[in-house]
Every structure is written in C-alpha cells, then in structure tokens.
Write a structure and sequence with these properties.
Length: 211
C-alpha cells in the first residue's frame, strides 16, 4: 500500500487555493499552557487571584469528574435486591455531577485558566481513591461514593472561605450554590441506604420483665 504524504497539498481548483478537501492531521504548539491564566480580562480580578482560584477549581474539577465516573461505574455494576432503584439513582446523580463538571470547567476558562480535561490527567490529580476494575457489593459501592462526596464537600467549604477572602464572589457562589449544595443532597440520598433498617419485620422491643 502506498504511503500517504501528509504534507501533500489539497488539490486546487480553478478558484486558486479553495478546495473541498479537508486538511487532515494538522498539529501545532498549544496556545496556552496548563496552569497559567490570561493576563488581561475585564473581570476586575487580579491575576494572582485568578491563578489561585483556577488551581483550586481544577482540583475540585478532577475530584468531581472522578465522582461522576464512579457513579457510572456503580450504575453499571450494581447487583442485588436493590438493583433497580440504585441503578436509577446512581445514573441520576451521574447526570447531576456531569452538569457540575461543565459548570466548574467553564468557570476556570472564563477566569482565564485552562481546565483539566482528559482521564489520564484527572487520574493523576484527584484525591479520590482508585476503585478496582471489578464489581463490588452495594455497601462498598455506596461507601466509596460517600468518601468521594466527603472529600468534595470538605474542599468546597475551604474554597468558599478562600474565594470570599480573595474577593472572588462568582467562584464563591458556584462552589456553594452549585457544588456544595448538590453534594450535600446526594450524600443524604446515599447515606440513608446504609441505615440497617428492617425490610419486613419491625424490631420488637425487649420485654422489660421477661423471665
Ligand atoms: Fe445506563
């Protein structure tokens, strides 16, 4: 098979350089390095503040992407008598976390930063423990999800304080209204599944003067 010449010019037409041929396999140096922010933006927020905020938000983003994926893993791999309700609940939370991912990522970009995006970079950055590839039982799945929520909720509280201190009200609002509140609610829905409540027979109180 003849080797394709990647530098070959697209065939030209009578109209000079105009051609319907797509110019494939292009590459060029990146236009902004990860970990930097654009210099001048009409945000009235100093560059060091935006650097600090985007660094913190990228940590929050990496953890949120990991939690999002942990929900999909749990949605697919769940087993047992509560399969159907958990299968649906995990996917609902997955969808909500996906929206949060987009909200955080776009805040990083609008602050002039660069959002972390790819799985390999996320895996290197997240603080959430890596689960095994195989299936785990429901209480273990839920415990993992709750541990992940706790990491994110703790970081949200720190970030809420820091953003207020640095004068970044927009990040404060996002962290509290979008991320913290949603995570608090989701952990409640999960935690209730780990309460050892009877399914069929109510617990009988001990007879006081028995015997
Ligand atoms: Fe599904």
């Amino acid at each position: 098979m003849a080797k394709k010449d990647r530098n070959a010019k697209a065939p030209t037409t009578e109209r000079g350089n105009l051609s319907a041929q797509p110019r494939l396999h292009q590459s060029a140096p990146e236009i902004q390095a990860y970990g930097t922010v654009s210099h001048m933006l009409p945000l009235d927020l100093e560059e060091p503040v935006r650097l600090e905020m985007t660094e913190q938000l990228n940590l929050l983003l990496a953890d949120t992407m990991t939690l999002r994926d942990l929900y999909k893993k749990s949605h697919w791999q769940v087993a047992g008598p509560t399969f159907y309700q958990l299968h649906l609940l995990f996917d609902k939370h997955y969808g909500e976390q996906s929206e949060i991912v987009d909200t955080i990522a776009e805040r990083i970009q609008l602050l002039g930063g660069v959002s972390i995006a790819m799985a390999a970079d996320v895996a290197e950055t997240t603080r959430i423990a890596r689960p095994p590839r195989g299936r785990e039982e429901v209480p273990v799945q839920i415990s993992r999800l709750l541990d992940a929520h706790q990491i994110i909720i703790g970081h949200c509280r720190e970030l809420a304080e820091l953003s207020t201190k640095l004068g970044d009200a927009g990040t404060n609002d996002l962290v509290v209204s979008d991320v913290l509140r949603a995570n608090e609610l989701q952990q409640w829905f999960l935690s209730e599944h780990l309460v050892d409540a009877p399914l069929v027979h109510a617990e009988q109180p001990q007879l006081r003067n028995a015997g």
